[in-house]
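Q: What does the predicted 3D structure of Chromate transporter look like?
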Amino acid sequence: MDRLQSQPNIKSLHKNKLLRTLEILAVSAKLGTTSFGGPIAHLGYYHEEYVMRRKWLDEKSYADLVALCQFLPGPASSQVGIGIGLSRGGLAGAIAAWLGFTLPSAIALVIFALFMQGMDISSAYWLHGLKLTAVAIVTQAVWSMGSKLATGRSRATIAVLATTVSLLWPNAFSQVLVIAVAGLLGLWLYRKSNETVTETSLVISISRKWAVVCLGLYCGLLVLLPLLGRLFNPDGHVSGLMLFDSFYRTGSLVFGGGHVVLPLLQSEVVQTGWITESDFLAGYGLVQAVPGPLFTFASYLGTLVNGIPGAIIATIAIFLPAFLLIVGVLPFWNKLRHNHHIQGALHGVNAAVVGILLAALYNPIWTTSVNSTGDFVLALLLFGMLSYWKLPSWSVVIAGAAGGMLLGWLGN
């Protein structure tokens, strides 16, 4: 009798898990379709959707997750999304979050690679409007996070110093160094703090055993793939294994994400003769025009090397290290962040994250987008739509694209 009663409960549990996974997929797909502007802008879109609108996690948990992903190699914005999906729906939720955010841009770039090579869209008016949308999105994120995480003289000072260093010393390692130093400052400044440690809304259901398996797989593939490529493909032909090794290695060793990965990919596919320099540069222009992660540039390159199968292999390979790392690290991170000493360090780190976002708001987002009074007015209107009129981000994206076209027609 008890067994018969438990069967409906098990079915109901599976149904709830499926519905939650589909919800994560739908929300992340919406973000993957509307999140223009690059990695820093993506964090603004995430903040608006996951923290402000849906309240899937609180401000502190979001900032801690962003700080962690800045330390890890790979695409930080994608890792943040995977972490939120993992918290919301377990491993299935993490996969759904990655698929939803990645597939729209990956599919668009595959189509571009097949049918639209040679087209120049870099000066399109609607694209300029999307850049102004990114200005509004990131401004809103900096404003909201700064009001909570960079309060008080000491934290505001850390944020200002982080902005200064990030602007004056812009390279792939400056962000990691800034966050590390901010963590040490926070550990020292708040070493005597008796602040109560609040419960995090970022609940991770993955066991530590599986986390260790993911970390072992990350390191193992990094070592084994080059050996297997030489063993099973001694003639140097571009096989699926060689393609997987090349893109997995790139995704494993990139700190800073986004634009930092482009020169590394160039050395992997152009210098080896897999594709031409002109095709690479055409794809570089195209990837600026699509939403979602810049790492989906691998989808374009994989298509040129080996068609649709190449696109699938390259896309999975370049994102797999980021997925393995975030799933492997989060179960330990969630416990560490409750330590009072770690909490002190996180006060400094979170303030530094606000400063880094502010630096990115100025350069490259503001400097490459706001070129006239009309640009500033449109960005201000979009900011008002987000912050004061509380309109959904997808409507702001549409308004930004339309406003960019209008500015172009008016000769702005």
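A (community wiki): The structure tokens above were generated from the sequence. The two ends are 75 Å apart (CA to CA). Residues 1-412 form one domain.
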